# Entry
Amino acid sequence: MNTKQTIEKVRADINAALVDIATRHNLAQLKLAPRCTYDAAGAFTFKLEGVVGGGMDKDASRYVDMQQWDSTLPPLNYVLPYGGRKFSIEGCNTTGSKAKAVDLADGKRYLLPMESVRRNYVISKGAQ
# Structure
């Protein structure tokens, strides 16, 4: 079996098990980081990431920091109309050039250009 396929199955199983652990310990989030290292000998390593109850992850924290200096950004978790769909803003990437957002219709995650997010936010505020 392909090592990458095996690791993706293991990742899914571990993340499913972590949901129960997070609930038991009142954590807002507990999951494996997106990257994994593995070698030809079959060894692999995952990084575990968590957020205490009431806290926010790195992406959300970074976005809130940016928003303090940029009033044209929508608040965190704002429902933004974009391209005929509605997205919830959840944070930003490490460079601050893209907003991390979830499509409320299907739950898929997207990176939206920050300039487009600003523009759509200003337009949506004017429509209210």
Observations:
- Residues 51 and 57 are 6 Å apart (CA to CA).
- The first strand starts at residue 27 and ends at 38.
- The first helix runs from residue 3 to 24.
- The chain is about 40% helix and 35% strand.
